[in-house]
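Weekly puzzle thread! Below is a chain. First person to post its structure in token form gets bragging rights.
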Amino acid sequence: MDGQRPNEGSWLDRMVRSSGIRMAKRSSRRGFLGKVGAGLAAAGVVTALGPTQEARADCLVTGCYGTVDINVCYTPWIVTAAEPGQSGVVLRKGPSFTADPVTNGSGAAVVIPVGGTFGRVSNRDGGSGCPDPGPRPNQNGFLWGYWIGYARQGWMPYSVNGVTYATGNNGYSGTLCGPAGYDFDCRKAKSACPNNVCGGSGVPSHTCSTTYRPIVAYPTDPSDERFYLRYGVNSTTFFWLVPGDEVIRYAYLSSGSYTWSCVQVICAKYAPNGCRGWVRSDALGSPNSNNTPCYPNVTCPSGS
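Winning reply:
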């Protein structure tokens, strides 16, 4: 995860020299950052700093990708055992049996039945060749992906506390193109998924705007697609955000029927501080000043 602060000494020294700012002998670099920012603004240098990393010159941080940089595929898994009290396994928003369930339009938990097929997601690596990037690592014995019976993504238990709930099933004869329609089946030719955008395109034109914002509730469906964190605009998902989470927004753009925001997680229930991607702007509340990070027991996918 690209969540580390750049080498502060070399970065700050270059900025200080370029802006002509002199630091008092007793001032620490960290205590002097506010003055440096003011000097850079006066010098015409635009910066947008998040809680853990400097933004790129165009205000988009690494992790807010165009489709050219995604390249994700799915492999089939089959549910072999049910959770206690269920007919299968519950699809959840976090990799834990205590996490909120993904719900359908009527508010019922999405349950993948025994014998049901689950598409396990791969890593993301981008590039025009679009090889299989290999599976995204499990989190606490849960896998991210989707059940073919309902077009929502989430976490499925496969091996938790010594119990096996699902196994790989390369004998599955169907094609796993992903619910977003941009990805492909790791086992098959890319042409098997007609909407696959292998190679894709860059990020569309966007507007820079750096603000801290909360994730706000949707009045009817807590599993509305607006709460997904995605690699690209209207594309592959990799985490759920929930009301009360906090993010920093760097930029926004309009695409299709929605406005999309490039964000970095600050404090979320099911996503770690520093993880970045795109979210529908209608999931965001008004700007605030909440920038206190938190670190749930989960890691951001490689390259996010």
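Puzzle host: Confirmed. Bonus trivia for everyone else. Helices lie at 8-19, 33-42.
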